[in-house]
Amino acid sequence: MTKYNQLPQAENMYIYEKKSLAEIGAQLGLSRRILFYWKKKYNWDKKRFKLEYEKENFSKELLDFARKIMNKISNDIDNNQKTPPPEIYSLINILKNIPLVKQYTDSLQPGQKQEKKGLTPDIVRQIEREILGME
Asked: Residue 83: its pLDDT value, please?
């Protein structure tokens, strides 16, 4: 198999599996040089960013839409108006499928959890207690 035949697999590993170039190179037996070349030539960073952006935006838009429908139904109830059944049906379907959307978006990053970077208040307190001896 030529190196070029491994391009789709390497690109998939970088964009969807979020693997580093070093990991991809080790797994596929490819040099860093060829991987850096492919990454630049085929815009892997742009594709990876776009995937994350779209995934995040879709979830936000779905929740915003659900909130709008809930507010409309709530206003209908407050004003003693009949809510159209399609609106209630749409809200039920959206709410029912939100866990599936989360499961799908999580599956795009198998085995990876988003880590918060920086010092959280809990870490600061732990440092104060364990390292600085402050109570």
From this structure: 86
Identify the residue whose tokens are 């988003």: 114
- Decide: pTM greater than 0.70: no
Under 8 Å between Cβ of 6 and 30: yes
Query: How large a percentage of the chain has pLDDT more than 90?
Result: 31
Q: Residue 72: which residues within 8 A CB-CB, separation 6 or more?
A: 83, 87
Inter-helix orientation angle 44-78/32-41, to 10°: 50
The band of 25, judged by pLDDT with boundaries at 50, 70 and 90, is very high
Please check the confidence at residue 69 and state whether its pLDDT lies above 80.
yes
